[in-house]
From TrEMBL:
GO cellular component, one term: ribosome
Gene: rplI
UniProt family annotation: Belongs to the bacterial ribosomal protein bL9 family.
Coiled-coil residues: 37-69
Matches recorded under PROSITE patterns: RIBOSOMAL_L9
Protein name: Large ribosomal subunit protein bL9
Keywords: Coiled coil, Ribonucleoprotein, Ribosomal protein, RNA-binding, rRNA-binding
Domain Ribosomal protein L9: 13-40
Originating organism: Psychrobacter luti
Matches recorded under Gene3D superfamilies: Ribosomal protein L9, C-terminal domain, Ribosomal protein L9, N-terminal domain
Transmembrane regions: none
A molecular function GO annotation: structural constituent of ribosome
Region (Disordered): 148-169
Function: Binds to the 23S rRNA.
Amino acid sequence: MQIILLQRIVNLGKLGETVDVKPGYGRNFLIPLGKALPATAANIEKFEARRAELEAEEAKEVAVAQERADALTDVNVIMRAKSGDEGKLFGSIGTRDIAEALTNSGLEVDRAEIKLPEGTLRQVGEYNVDIQLHHDVTASILVTILSEDGDNQDSAEEVEDENEDYSEE
């Protein structure tokens, strides 16, 4: 089935491209959600008439996402969690926790925008976390996880130092 994309769709194409998709994907998902139109002669003419409007909307979305990314530049989120002697957290810190911390600091971020490619954070330390605000706009923030009792972090570093001393012998 040939369709015209009304917006960028990951792994499929950009705005205005005519692509082939399976009929079920086109009829049951893309067309009802307003992401595509069937590629008929009448729809192609309608699309060409609206192309400038759709491209302007896309540019506006990118500009808004870029403003949000600029606001997130140099943001450092400090979180405290219970941890064991070796710096391993009791539990984990995920996208929901990071989004909540950012929202509490006055920056509106949805948890779906936060990308943790290696999964949840389970160790005390510093992590660079990407926030995908738009297909083309990504911001990076620094998340620092500290132990609720400051002693645990120091002892974890001492344990690592001791382990290094033993491994050298």
